């Protein structure tokens, strides 16, 4: 375990120390700000409802459930079980441009939520996969750069989030199939009296 932690620390220090600059401090502080991507999600949900047809309307509801499940799984279940101290609270030389925040480190909820959403929408809208995963990756990297998570927190959050996002996408496809079958079945006009 010590060997793995040393690798984790080495990668952490690469992002947190070696790449450290004022420009990246500002960039990653903006990228990591929850309010930035929640606003984006709200706009996307509105667009899906207004212009996405049946798939968009179902996806709008499911993605809200997805983020709720992911956020609670990470924050209320896994973080409380693992209780891993954040690097900014454990490593005395960790750089924290936005200051320490949160309680426990594993998994990164930023990674969990964003990789879940990326996987969910990649399955529904494959043409968006690069934009979705690059965005999720930048948000995840910002957490290490800012001293708030170890790389393994990010990796764990990304894997768990992608798995949950995949399951919710399959649920979406199942619901689409069920509603399609229901609407394409011939309607029974009733019995006629003779």
Keywords:
single chain, 194 residues, mainly alpha, 0% strand, elongated
3D structure, described in words:
The chain is mostly helical. The chain has a single domain (15-175), classed as Vanadium-containing Chloroperoxidase, domain 1, CATH 1.20.144.10. 76% of the residues lie in helices and 0% in strands. It is built from eight helices and no strands. The protein has helices at 2-18, 22-32, 34-51, 53-82, 87-90, 109-124, 129-145, 151-184. The longest helix has 34 residues, at 151-184. The radius of gyration is 21 Å and the shape is elongated. The N and C termini lie far apart (82 Å).
What's the arrangement of secondary structure elements?
Blueprint: H1 2-18, H2 22-32, H3 34-51, H4 53-82, H5 87-90, H6 109-124, H7 129-145, H8 151-184
Taken from the alpha-carbon principal axes, the silhouette is elongated
Task: Give the CATH architecture.
Answer: Up-down Bundle
- Please indicate the count of domains: 1
Distance between the termini: 82 Å
Short description:
The protein has about 190 residues and is an all-alpha fold. About 75% of the residues lie in helices and about 0% in strands. The model has no long low-confidence stretch (mean pLDDT about 90).
């Amino acid at each position: 375990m010590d060997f793995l932690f040393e690798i984790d620390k080495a990668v952490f220090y690469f992002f947190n120390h070696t790449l450290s600059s004022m420009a990246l401090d500002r960039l990653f502080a903006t990228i990591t700000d929850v309010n930035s991507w929640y606003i984006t999600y709200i706009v996307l949900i509105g667009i899906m409802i207004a212009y996405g047809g049946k798939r968009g309307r179902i996806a709008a509801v499911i993605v809200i459930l997805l983020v709720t499940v992911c956020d609670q799984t990470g924050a209320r279940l896994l973080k409380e079980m693992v209780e891993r101290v954040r690097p900014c609270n454990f490593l005395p030389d960790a750089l924290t441009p936005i200051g320490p925040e949160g309680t426990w480190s594993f998994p990164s909820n930023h990674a969990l939520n964003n990789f879940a959403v990326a996987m969910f929408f990649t399955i529904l809208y494959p043409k968006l996969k690069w934009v979705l995963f690059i965005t999720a990756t930048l948000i995840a990297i910002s957490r290490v750069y800012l001293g708030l998570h170890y790389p393994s927190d990010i990796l764990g959050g990304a894997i768990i989030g992608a798995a949950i996002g995949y399951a919710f996408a399959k649920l979406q496809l199942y619901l689409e199939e069920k509603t399609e079958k229901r609407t394409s079945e011939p309607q029974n006009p009733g019995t006629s009296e003779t």
